[in-house]
From TrEMBL, chain A:
Organism for this UniProt entry: Planotetraspora phitsanulokensis
Protein name in UniProt: ABC transporter
UniProt key word Acetylation: no
InterPro entries assigned: ABC_transporter_permease, MetI-like, MetI-like_sf
Stretches that traverse the bilayer: 27-52, 81-108, 115-136, 164-186, 220-248, 268-292
Compartmental location: Cell membrane
UniProt-listed PROSITE patterns: ABC_TM1
TrEMBL record, chain B:
Gene3D superfamilies noted in UniProt: Periplasmic binding protein-like II
Signal peptide region: 1-25
Pfam families (UniProt xref): SBP_bac_1
Protein's UniProt name: Sugar ABC transporter substrate-binding protein
Protein species of origin: Planotetraspora phitsanulokensis
Keyword Signal: yes
UniProt KW Transport keyword: no
InterPro entries, A to Z: Bact_solute-bd_prot1, SBP, TAT_signal
UniProt keyword terms in alphabetical order: Signal
SUPFAM superfamilies: Periplasmic binding protein-like II
Amino acid sequence: MSAFAPTARRGTPPAATREGRGGVLPWLAVPALVVFVGFGVIPLIGVLFLSFTSWDGLGEINLSGLTSWQTVLADPGLPHALWITFLVIAASWAFQTPLSLLIGVFLAGRQRYRAVLAVVFFIPLLLSQAAIAIAYKALLDPNFGLGAGLHIDLLVQDWLGRPVLAFSVVIFVVSWQFIPFHSLIYQGGVRQIPRSMYEAAELDGAGRMRKFFSITLPQLKYTIITSSTLMVVGSLTFFDLIFVLTAGGPADATRVLALDMYKRGFQASLMGPASAIAVILVLVGLALALLLRRLGGRDPQASQLEGA
Amino acid sequence: MDSRNTSRRTFLGLSMGLPLGAALAACGTSGPSQPGGGSSGGGAKATYWYLSVQPQEGVRTRAVERFNKANPNGQITGTPFQNDAYKTKIKTAIGAGQAPTIIWGWGGGTLRSYVKAGQVEDLTSFFDQNAAVKDRLFPSSFGAATIDGKIYAMPCETVQPIVLFHNKTAFEKIGAEPPQSWGDIMDLVPKFNKAGIAPFSLGGQSRWTNMMWLEFLLDRIGGTEVFQAVFDGEKGAWSNPAVLDMLTKVQELVKANGFIKGFSSITADSNADQALLYTGKAAMMLHGTWTYGGMSQDGGDFVPGGHLGYTNFPPVDGGKGDPSNTVGNPGQYLSISSKATPEQKEIAKKFFAEGVLTDQEGKEWVETGGVPIVKGADAAWAGSKDADFLNFVYGIASNAKVFAQSWDQALSPAAAEVLLDNIAKLFQLSISPQQWVDNMNAVIGQ
């Protein structure tokens, strides 16, 4: 999802420069704040308001109290979409984290061939999600796709037409695109770990595995939390890839909450219920982000690095 | 303290920025943005959005070019969009007051929602003043343009019934004849499957493609009154036993592997369903006559070589419906945005009167294998290579006792979405016919 990059960049200034100084520095946050209020807070208030109205996107906006909320909450489509969204979050996290971690550790090595691989590996992240989805859709077509073209029977499956397969394909394509991004985060994290720790461990006779589990992994704790937060909140709002790849299908097997919102709002012209779902999406996102933050301990700014 | 506040704000940014970003991206990617009819008003330039995909797109584009050439002072700027993207894009644009001057559409339920919102011009007086414009078109095409007795759209382009196409080569291979009844269809399915040919091609991800099966089956089994009752909003109208019968038959066909493998992930916009038919991977396809042009263009020798066969949807044994009835698009429709400037509206009306369905445009529609909705159009294709097909379509359109509009176009957008959603589930066998009926009864009249 293209929205990943901006969120990663939207970070606040490092703690050290912010703390204990007044004067001009808080003003540096003003541009970010203006953008945030303009594109975050005000639309959110609008959506909250719309969720208490009925509007077809064309005519008058009529206040309708809790009708939209009652429609949405009584609809069996909502728990289904929530469940699918949860599955997407869980599966993409469980698939991406170990792979990104391993690749990140591998790429952290300073060998030249690894630097070359890192560049090659980064390419999927540069592609648009819609383009990726169209390409995979063509490759996976059971009648004209890769399997049919090369006569490899194993690849001739109804990839996007069976609920479990379609779901797996979505997770695979998402991971294919975003593992490079998370590997990059881990690569940076691993390079921050002081050499001295490894040297000390080697003197004590620690092997490769032991070093990984006793030094690398614990030292990467906050990197894992950062990467997981991005993954979880990002998965919550997957839209474009699923929209192009499966359109939520077959039937509603991959209809995540964001897609449900779009379908209600823009295809069925029910802006009230769609806004109610948007509000639910925001609440779930907030809850998940705060939960991950809590898991990270009281003071995530603290570092275990020497000298910090 | 400071650090905690900032981190909370970061969360808000994370969790709110993303859904909104996704929604914005969804709006923004569907096509190049055009200055809207309402906002520009910078002199004499009207805007017009229509559907892409050749060969039809070319006919639309050339009609605009010809008009612009003849009217240097009143130009029209056209922008083409893909079918499924357009349906969303146009609604959003109209809602945002950014509609083009000329709104291309299918009439029916969607037009009704524009009318209710006061977004399109009442053209009744225009047609009264220009009786000649009205009188040269098929009278049946005005039904879907008329809301509560007033005309809100100019019918245009071609009449597009849905017909049963078949690949003659595939039929020769198994030594069979095209189906004459529903029983024949069910008999043909195992024969084709045995020969390694899929009985029916279907672009199921688009959902309205699945709907065409229901439309015909219901009409053949129960007659036109059954859906009319739904359209009129009668309580429990889907509970008619004909509906259950129709749904059961569809699921029987799915269970017998009547449709091509992977049909639920094929989109009609990509024309892959047509490719399945002309490459011989599938033997039959229920589709609108607009696919004829695409198959002639892309299918190599398939259409010119006479390998494409076509029939009306066969009757169902014991059914009440008239087998001459058909479903589809009685025409396409052009409306004028009420937000356009008076100058733009004048250009649009001039276009309707002089630029739409000119003899040249009619000829070009005939070349794409379409039947323009102009009276006496059959004279235009004497000697044409597609004369057989055009006569067939003209015959269906003029002989049909009832030419029903596609369900999703006739119903309101909200009801249509529920309908399409449940149809997709029906074809996926994830709901039973009875559940389908219950789900649909719940939204009748919405």
